[in-house]
């Protein structure tokens, strides 16, 4: 194993860059940052990004925007490299012209944030920075395709941006919208990784009347949203038209792995969807990359089995009966979701980090090499992390 493949790389870690945080401060409807005065006369910033945000929003501070805080967090947890993305809701709430200008400015800001970061200690033939990034596209209704393509090209030209983060709404009609085809084509051609991340959850009426805080929208709503949007993308035949598109799903792809055979069966029984696809639905799961933000070894093992099994579902081939967990691990990547999920009590390390690392360490059937891959080696290759 080379030194570089032993690095710990966080592919799911967010920032509200100062320019974006100022925008949130200038607003008074969701999404926004509100400054409150506490009972003892101190000022406290609170973040409100979700519709019906419970408990008047959450406390936010420099860990959301200050690069030094990101680096301190990485040092505390032994994280060598972070591939940083703007946190939700990105530019979704802006008019097209403003979204386009801000996308371009924030991409430049993120390039600076990464380019001026320190280098890792890795002693190898390549210099490797500690920070790389996912850029942003102005994906909002009424934006012109030309504008979006211009930003794809901008991201591809910025040396420390290795992909882009995308929500689930596309330009208003979701990710199965044919109007996105030129965008997929440009992203595929540029070799950028698309990080698909939720924000809206699903119909909140299912959550009932009990006050469960953020638990249901975050634990279920977020991953269900990812499951639905990735399924719609698969059903629209995007992977048949753009077979080299690299799509990384947040939160280990939500419920997609658990539901993929049911999905395949429903397609088989419905000619409208079946006629659109070249392969069994399970084949497309093998085209995905998934973060390992699942917090449990059993879930990671299961998901890696399902991804690996997809190789048996290419049209015209026989189904492989034995999943190859090791093969599946090669499409999985450590992540933390920082700066979300901070510890409630002062603690040395964040549970959201230690649990995900422990989960990787405990997956049955992953070799030490597989685990090192998930911790960082896979990300080094996927994002080509070198100067
Ligand atoms: O805690 C949350 O609301 C979030 C969020 O909004 N985005 C995210 O990536 N993780 C957690």
TrEMBL record:
Ranges that cross the membrane: none
Keyword Lyase applies: yes
A biological process term (GO) from this entry: secondary metabolic process
Residue ranges of domain Amidohydrolase-related in the record: 9-385
Record protein name field: Amidohydrolase-related domain-containing protein
Database matches in Pfam families: Amidohydro_2 (PF04909)
Family that this chain belongs to: Belongs to the metallo-dependent hydrolases superfamily.
InterPro entries in alphabetical order: ACMSD (IPR032465), Amidohydro-rel (IPR006680), Metal_Hydrolase (IPR032466)
Keywords, in A-Z order: Decarboxylase, Lyase
GO molecular function, one term: hydrolase activity
Cellular component terms per the entry's GO annotation: cytosol
Statement: the UniProt record of this protein carries the keyword Transmembrane helix: no
């Amino acid at each position: 194993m080379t030194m570089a493949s032993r690095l710990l790389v966080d592919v799911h870690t967010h920032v509200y860059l100062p320019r974006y945080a100022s925008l949130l401060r200038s607003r008074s409807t969701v999404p926004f940052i509100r400054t409150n005065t506490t009972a003892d006369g101190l000022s406290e910033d609170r973040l409100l990004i979700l519709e019906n945000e419970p408990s008047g929003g959450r406390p936010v501070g420099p860990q959301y925007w200050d690069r030094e805080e990101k680096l301190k967090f990485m040092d505390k947890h032994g994280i060598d490299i972070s591939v940083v993305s703007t946190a939700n809701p990105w530019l979704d709430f802006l008019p097209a012209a403003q979204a386009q200008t801000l996308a371009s400015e924030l991409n430049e800001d993120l390039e600076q944030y990464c380019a001026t970061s320190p280098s890792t200690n890795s002693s190898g033939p390549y210099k490797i920075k500690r920070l790389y990034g996912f850029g942003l596209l102005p994906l909002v209704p009424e934006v012109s395709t030309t504008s979006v393509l211009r930003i794809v090209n901008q991201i591809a030209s910025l040396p420390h941006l290795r992909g882009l983060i995308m929500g689930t709404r596309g330009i208003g009609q979701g990710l199965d919208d044919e109007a996105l085809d030129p965008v997929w084509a440009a992203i595929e051609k540029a070799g950028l990784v698309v990080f698909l991340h939720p924000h809206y959850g699903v119909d909140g009426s299912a959550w009932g009347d009990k006050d469960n805080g953020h638990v249901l929208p975050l634990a279920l709503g977020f991953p269900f949203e990812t499951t639905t949007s990735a399924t719609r993308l698969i059903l629209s035949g995007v992977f048949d038209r753009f077979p080299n598109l690299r799509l990384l799903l947040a939160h280990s792809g939500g419920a997609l792995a658990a539901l993929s055979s049911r999905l395949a069966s429903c397609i088989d029984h419905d000619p409208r969807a079946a006629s659109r696809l070249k392969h069994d639905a399970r084949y497309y799961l093998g085209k995905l990359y998934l973060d390992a933000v699942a917090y449990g070894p059993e879930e990671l093992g299961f998901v890696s089995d399902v991804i690996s099994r997809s190789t048996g579902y290419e049209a015209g081939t026989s189904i492989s009966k034995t999943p190859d967990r090791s093969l599946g691990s090669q499409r999985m990547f450590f992540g933390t979701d920082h700066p979300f999920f901070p510890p409630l009590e002062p603690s040395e390390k964040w549970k959201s980090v230690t649990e995900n690392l422990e989960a990787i360490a405990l997956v049955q059937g992953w070799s030490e090499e597989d685990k090192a891959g998930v911790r960082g080696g896979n990300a080094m290759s996927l994002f080509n992390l070198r100067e």
